[in-house]
Amino acid sequence: MLKEKIRQALEHVKDPEMPAVSIVELGMFEDVGINDNTIVVKLLPTFSGCPALPLIEKEVKNAVEQLNPGFPVQVVFLKTPPWTTERIAPEAREKLKQFGIAPPPLRHKQGDPWEIDCPYCGSTYVTMENIFGPSACRSILYCKNCKNPFEAMKPVATL
Question: Where's the PaaD zinc beta ribbon domain (predicted)?
Fold first, then answer.
């Protein structure tokens, strides 16, 4: 019951680099428990060293403390299991498209070609402009069909 209430509260915590989706929709929420009267929220970071993690931690603490005033909250970023783009919820993939970010391909295997559809027109006639986008998890592409630049989430797969 506590886990479900906290998960619902975290539906309102957005990824600051992709504010169209919550950390739950991105698949970052792993577990919650209580340890010595402290609520421990376990999250999977999308990318190691992501600069948004301190802000996400602060927002998670605020959301959980509002549900349970007086209880200390600890946020732990786990290294295992590794987060992969397979964890992104189907509704989040659609929200990313509407926000102008192409979601990563489903069932991507490391080393496979990265096929991306333009989030604006759906065309596959796109080129990679820069593998390094505005954040570690995104790249910059250009659609030759509708002539729009756009960002795409990099696929992260397990080996």
Answer: 103-154
Is residue 87 over pLDDT 60?
Answer: yes
In this predicted structure, what is the pLDDT of residue 65? 95
Report the percentage of the chain scoring pLDDT > 70. 98
Cβ neighbour number for residue 48 with a 10 Å cutoff: 11
For 2-77, CATH number out of 3.90.580.10, 3.90.650.10, 3.20.20.70, 3.30.300.130 equals 3.30.300.130
Q: Is the pLDDT of residue 20 over 60?
A: yes
Q: What angle do CA 61, 7, 51 make, to 5 degrees?
A: 50
Q: Is the confidence at residue 159, as pLDDT, over 60?
A: no
Q: What is the DSSP letter of 46?
A: S
CA distance 47 to 59: 18
* Residue type at position 66: Q
Listing DSSP states for 18-40 in one string gives EEEEETTTTT-EEEEEEETTEEE
Q: Which of 100, 82, 103 is nearest to 92 (CA)?
A: 103
